[in-house]
Specification:
Radius of gyration: 17 Å
Strand content: under 5%
Number of strands: 0
Largest sheet: none
Helix content: over 70%
Number of helices: 10
Structural class: mainly alpha
Shape: globular
Distance between the termini: 22 Å
Length: 261
């Protein structure tokens, strides 16, 4: 079984390397639906997996100066406290296994649905935001910091419960809030913000006992070379086509998760 985890990690890493998204949104449902891992354990393990894999991408973006640290700070002001409060709430409620499974799979199915939709409308959102850029300048000056913090808080809750939401979903919101920013800079910002968020949420799940460290090691063994190879293939693969295929897959998985028992 460990070798199958490693192969799965490699394939997911390959997709992440090519498209920049798909880590949590593919890995968590894969662990639940294909390998029968308990949903809460799949989420907790995937969060630490994501923090370690995204650290590599974040480091590259930081070196290339394609990170807006102010936006990272605003997002973190919302997401990190939200992640801590969500973990504390889960600990306080001490849900039984059946209820916890229902909560995680329910939130996961919604997160996958939103992520799949976000991938499909990403380009359209960017065009609309840029078209209405002049009308939104005053709104940006007044409410942009608060809107960014609220976005971070919502992403923090979603990611902590489902491990999904920090990638494509967060990216689409950033494209709408910051239409004048270069896309590559928003991508770098989104990745760097996800590193402390997934690490904190993952450590919270580790404290709750919903992390499988052996599983984590098996996934990393495959995903790290997968991401490396995928990043070199990204210039040769039609990213937009692959992204749309990935979006459809996520939408199908979201409906499958809705009926998971």
């Amino acid at each position: 079984m460990d070798i199958m985890y490693t192969i799965s990690g490699f394939l997911v890493g390959l997709i992440v390397g090519v498209t920049g998204v798909g880590g949590g949104s593919l890995m968590t449902p894969l662990l639940v639906l294909l390998f029968g891992v308990a949903p809460a354990t799949a989420v907790g393990t995937d969060l630490l997996y994501a923090s370690l894999t995204k650290t590599m991408g974040g480091w590259v973006h930081a070196r290339r100066d394609t990170v807006d640290w102010k936006i990272v700070g605003l997002l973190s002001m919302g997401s990190l406290p939200a992640a801590v409060l969500t973990i504390l709430t889960l600990k306080y409620l001490a849900l039984d296994e059946k209820t916890l499974r229902g909560l995680v799979t329910g939130v996961l199915s919604v997160a996958l649905l939103l992520t799949g939709t976000a991938l499909l409308v990403k380009d359209q959102v960017k065009k609309i935001a840029q078209r209405k850029n002049g009308m939104m300048i005053e709104l940006h000056h007044r409410y942009l910091p608060a809107a960014t913090i609220v976005t971070g808080a919502l992403v923090g809750i979603l990611v902590t419960i489902s491990s999904v939401g920090a990638g494509a979903l967060g990216m689409v919101v950033l494209l709408f809030l910051y239409p004048r920013h270069q896309t590559v800079k928003l991508v770098g910002t989104d990745i760097v913000h996800a590193v402390p968020l997934t690490a904190l949420a993952g450590m919270g799940h580790l404290a709750l006992g919903t992390v499988d460290l052996v599983l984590l090691g098996s996934l990393l063994l495959g995903s790290l070379p997968g991401i490396y190879i995928g990043s070199h293939l990204s210039a040769k693969v039609p990213e937009k086509v692959l992204r749309n295929v990935l979006a459809v897959i996520l939408l199908l998985i979201s409906f499958k998760m809705m009926f998971y028992k």
